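Thread: Newbie trying to understand structure tokens

Hi all, I'm a second-year student working on a class project, and my supervisor (Dr. K.) asked me to get a predicted structure for one chain before our next meeting. I've only ever worked with sequences, so writing a 3D structure as a token string is new to me. If someone could post the tokens and maybe explain what I'm looking at, I'd be very grateful. Here's the chain:
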Amino acid sequence: MSAVDRRTFLTTVGRCGLGVCAFGRAFALAGPHEGEDAQFTHRVDFQEQIGDGRIMCGVCPRHCVLGDGETGLCRSRTNVGGVHYARGYGRPCIIRDDPIEKIPLSHFMPGAETMTIATGGCNLRCLYCQNWEQSQHRPNELEHYDLSPADAVAAAQRKGLKIIAFNYTEPIAFLEYAIDIAAAAKKAGLRVVAATGGYVEPEPLLALARYLDAITVGLKGFTEDFYGTVCEATLDPVLRTIDTIRHKTDCWLELVNLIVPTYNDDLKTIRLMAGWIRRTVGVEMPLHFSRFVPMYRLTNLPRTSVTTLEAARQTALSVGLKYAYTANIALHDGTNTYCPKCHASLIQRLGFKILSNRITNGQCPHCHTRIPGVWS
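---
Reply by user tm_fold:
Sure, no problem. This is what the structure looks like when written as tokens:
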């Protein structure tokens, strides 16, 4: 993609519904509330009828019980006459061309470009949500594109993109759509990756993960108090998700922890979190510490300081994790990949851009230590 094409693409599709998608054709653009009846086309697979026309959703640990006409907390599943429907199916509000590093993934095909898809909705209520304009609205409240799973795959192929990604909003909120896109992509020989908050039941998680090549889980904090106060959720299901991905799937896994000043920046808690990661998923698990930017309902706080991110990274390394990164800081050593044995610089990054990649056949070229990841 040329520089001119990239500028045009990001201008027209950088946010939902701002223009014509630059994926080789003009996808149909619908405004908020358009096609209200047309949105109820795909049934939710994970649900239980509990009598009197009520439905209990089985996708995430909230288990929302919905009467006729009611929508779950994720804003994306509705009981219509006793049938559980997915609102966002085929109605993405975001279609973007992004670097894989934005997921973030640092050990999975560095420098690759993805076709990234998202719909409205989320089953978390993070006070600092960076994409709240999309995640905290129902799919039908947003301008969106009409995009079937087959069309998504065809669009990626026309652009020469070999990876489809689910990011910006929570893929669990559009699980049914994500599964069908991922299945079609795998059949076409594409790879599929996702970024998730991990607040999901094991069965739906595994149904999606069977088609995924890599997953980044946002481990947003490491106390129940943080999850309850900031995300209106609980910690244990997220820890279970991480353990399930690591031990019951073939997906490459990375973790990201966004550090919010005064909320989850305590180094003792970060040390406990890193220790749990080491014991549960191993010392080779890449862990990213991401910078908070004042947004949504936490605009009163400052950005996370570089010093705080550096201290968090050093804490994780001191516990024994081999690959700890700082994120959202351009031109910083913490964004680079180093050999854990000889400490040679292997991948140098500037923000999301790869400046150099010296990993050879999955190894450090100097001491031949194996560097875990998917490199080609």
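A couple of things are worth pointing out once you decode it. The two ends are 20 Å apart (CA to CA). The longest helix spans residues 267-281. Feel free to ask follow-ups in this thread.
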